[in-house]
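[09:14] KT: can someone run the structure on this one? pasting the chain below
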Amino acid sequence: MGSEIPQLHIFFFPFMAHGHMIPLVDMSKLFGTRGVKISIISTPANAPLLSSTIQRSNDLGIEMDLKIINFPVEAGLPEGCEILTPSLTEEKRRACLSYF
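[09:31] RB: done, structure tokens below
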């Protein structure tokens, strides 16, 4: 019986602001170039920002995928808090950040 070492699989969950997502994806690609399987967890609103980079990485042989999770309003999180953009009012930004 051969004893195979399972491939390391790392999950990344970036803070939901553009300035955090881009460096995290860059860091995850570095792990991927070392043979680590990468999954990036995102919300539906953030997924389009990440999907083209992940596809390009896959085309280069870096094993990455995107896992989508919903942030349900029913759980008490204010609506629209799945992505923090400059267009949010200060009041809305504080409400969103209070959950983290």
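[09:33] KT: thanks! Residues 18-32 form the longest helix (15 residues).
[09:34] RB: yep, looked fine to me
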